[in-house]
Write a structure and sequence with these properties.
The structure is a single chain. The two termini are 29 Å apart. Helices cover 46% and strands 14% of the residues. The chain is built from twelve helices and seven strands. It has a single domain, classed as Rossmann fold, CATH 3.40.50.
Length: 254
Amino acid sequence: MELAHEILGGGPIAIVIHGLTESRESFRPILGPLGERYTVLAVDLRGHGRSNSAEPYDVITLATDVHDTLESEGLANSTIAPLVIGHSMGSVVASAYGSIFSSRAIINIDQALRLAAFKEGLGQLEPLLRGDKKSFDMAIEMIFSSLHGPLLPVDIARLAALRRADQNVVLGMWGTVFDSSVEELDATVDALVSGITVPYLSLHGSDIGDEYASWIRSRLPTATVELWPNHGHYPHLVDSTRFLERVRSFDTSI
């Protein structure tokens, strides 16, 4: 599927992938600055923003949509493979992209890939998420209100206004987490990252636990793990200047 998207800037390609219920607009404050260095492809995943809804919503399909969109713009055959930046659930899609398509580096913004632990934390909300619209909306509000961290009120309002929370889409994207055992989720992650051979920055603004860095490096040797304490789920928006500088320092292959 070709996704709703925009292209801005000039230079080597950087793909930007938003999180669950959001859109490329969530990245708006940093798209312009990124465009000063990169040709930025910012997409709305299927079922998000201005893109159409269509099953399935597994990460391989979502990553393939991103690549199809890159191809539709004639950018897939660039001599320099793209930098892929994902936030939240978009980081899982970015990881899948890097596993099956050519990339030069991947930046994961605040999404732990230890999906078994994610399942445990999300499990208590599963009945609400699978319930009626009122229950679903309540669960979504509970989830996202806990992620703001030190975001300014104006930024919180902006993100809330652009949110598109479709129950079928959310359950489609989180279905694997809900329906798989811990062992199956570990196997899924191992398969997901097995094809990644490029530098991988795992950047977190919220606590990921003492063991996460060693856990992810055991599966993804190219990973660099960083914690920016007290930056919450949106470290790229809380301190955009620092984030843009980190992108430049990490992306050393150009």
